[in-house]
């Protein structure tokens, strides 16, 4: 039964989005790739970055990020959409996504960006939020309408056979907090090294160890 369930999940994933990703998938925009954003020049490195927004008092606030995996599907984290009180996903109408976006503020409309509503939120079958230490924290968002792929909007490649090893360096685009502990207004990219599970376990606070389940990996610096 377990193998059958896993096979069904893989089959469902294989039906999402385009059957064939474009040859340019997973390629960073070459250094110096500058685009016009709200009348100003902006540098975008990872063209698969997706901003995820939730409705908040008649406006939309950026709450999470995701990766474009096809023209009509986004890979993200389940906890961004999960309602712990009712143990199910929030209503899809509360969310919007934006691709090709440089400024975090939803109300800044930019040349080249595209906004989409959600057609479906697919949460991993085994996810139950805090009740299961956020195990299987994966969600796939089906878009109501496919995005148009452009030089600054390109899906990431995905390969289930790849295994990370010591020395691997990854890159993430984000609007994370700055040195003043304030949310950044403009998108940046940061390089982070892969950290072995045992090293990560021994480095993080003991109170957080319960959430470091075997389906996760660590990246970052220990200093």
List the helices and strands and how they pair.
Blueprint: H1 2-14, E1 34-37, E2 40-43, E3 49-55, E4 60-70, E5 73-76, E6 82-83, E7 88-89, E8 95-99, E9 114-123, E10 139-143, E11 169-174, E12 188-195, H2 197-203, E13 218-219
Antiparallel strand pairs: 1-2, 3-4, 3-8, 4-5, 5-10, 6-7, 8-9, 9-10, 11-12, 12-13
- Summed over residues and divided by their number, the pLDDT gives a mean of 85
Distance N terminus to C terminus?
Answer: 44 Å
User: Which band does the percent of strand residues land in?
Assistant: 25-35%
Q: Could you give the count of β-strands? A: 13
Q: In order across it, which strands form the biggest sheet?
A: 3-4-5-10-9-8
Low-confidence stretches: 1-19
Q: What does the overall shape look like?
A: globular
Helix content: under 10%
Give the biggest beta sheet: 6 strands, antiparallel, barrel
List SSEs in N-to-C order: HEEEEEEEEEEEEHE
Number of domains: 2
The CATH architecture of the largest domain would be Beta Barrel
CATH class of the largest domain: Mainly Beta
Pfam families: Trypsin
Organism: Diploptera punctata (Pacific beetle cockroach)
Domain Peptidase S1: 30-223
GO molecular function: serine-type endopeptidase activity
Descriptive keywords:
223 residues; mainly beta; Thrombin, subunit H; 2 domains; six-stranded antiparallel beta barrel; three-stranded antiparallel sheet; globular; disordered N terminus; TRYPSIN_HIS; disulfide bond; Peptidase_S1A; Peptidase S1 domain-containing protein; serine-type endopeptidase activity
């Amino acid at each position: 039964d377990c193998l059958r369930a896993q096979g069904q999940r893989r089959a469902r994933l294989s039906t999402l989005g385009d059957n064939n990703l474009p040859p340019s998938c997973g390629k960073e925009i070459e250094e110096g790739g500058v685009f016009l954003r709200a009348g100003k020049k902006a540098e975008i490195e990872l063209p698969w970055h997706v901003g995820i927004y939730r409705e908040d008092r008649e406006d939309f606030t950026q709450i999470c990020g995701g990766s474009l995996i096809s023209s009509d599907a986004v890979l993200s984290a389940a906890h961004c959409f999960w309602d712990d009180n009712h143990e199910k996903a929030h209503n899809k109408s509360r969310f919007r996504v934006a691709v090709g976006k440089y400024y975090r503020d939803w109300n800044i409309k930019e040349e080249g960006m595209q906004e989409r509503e959600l057609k479906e939120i697919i949460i991993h079958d085994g996810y139950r939020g805090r009740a299961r230490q956020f195990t299987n924290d994966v969600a796939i968002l089906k878009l109501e309408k496919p995005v148009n792929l452009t030089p600054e909007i390109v899906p990431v490649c995905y390969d289930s056979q790849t295994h990370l090893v010591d020395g691997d360096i990854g890159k993430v685009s984000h609007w994370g907090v700055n040195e003043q502990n304030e949310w950044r207004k403009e998108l940046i990219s940061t390089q982070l090294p892969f950290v072995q599970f045992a090293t990560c376990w021994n480095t993080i606070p003991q109170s957080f160890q319960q959430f470091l389940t075997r389906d996760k990996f660590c990246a970052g610096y220990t200093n």
